[in-house]
Design brief:
Elements (H helix, E strand, L loop, with lengths): L19 E3 L5 E3 L1 E9 L2 H17 L4 H21 L4 E9 L2 E7 L22 H8 L2 E7 L4 E8 L1
Antiparallel strand pairs: 1-2, 3-4, 4-5, 5-7, 6-7
Helix pairs in contact: 1-2, 2-3
Length: about 160
């Protein structure tokens, strides 16, 4: 499904110059592929989210490095949404503009804190998810979702 003209994109969508082309009438439009899916907020859904992301990105011809990074990022973000919120379902959206992938995982809220990368001890088993997201992403962040009760964590991968 192609995206609309650049002026209609939200601030979060910043296509790269190689993704731009002239459309009919000389207007600039970005070639864009999108997919959205929703899964129950269960631990078992994390593996299904990974499968869906890998399937979609392969069908779009995304390179293996980006595909591997996206698989890990969606795994970490989905796990956080399931583990740290009281959501009933978790939404995932993928948007490919040129070679730039925007991945977003949105929950229904009730988390105790704002997601942020943090330092953890060498002996700790968990707590490294957002550090991995930060390391694998060109940029990442958080925005309010579901009327402010939930949040969406997004990441850009190249």
């Amino acid at each position: 499904m192609p995206c609309a003209s650049l002026t209609e994109h939200s601030v979060d969508v910043a296509p790269s110059y190689e993704a731009l082309r002239l459309g009919r009438g000389g207007t600039m439009v970005a070639s864009c592929l999108q997919d959205v899916f929703c899964l129950p907020a269960l631990s078992a859904s994390v593996a299904e989210a990974r499968r869906q992301v890998v399937f979609r990105l392969r069908s779009w011809g995304v390179g293996q490095d980006t595909l591997d990074s996206a698989e890990l990022v969606v795994s970490e973000l989905f796990t956080n949404a399931v583990r740290h919120t009281s959501s009933e379902e978790v939404h995932c959206s993928l948007q490919l503009i040129g070679r730039r992938l925007r991945l977003e995982v949105a929950d229904q809220g009730c988390a105790r804190s704002v997601p942020q990368a943090r330092s953890v001890g060498v002996d700790q088993e968990g707590g490294r998810g957002l550090m991995l997201v930060e390391a694998l992403s060109e940029a990442w962040g958080v925005r309010a979702e579901h009327g402010g009760t939930g949040r969406a964590v997004w990441a850009y991968l190249v």
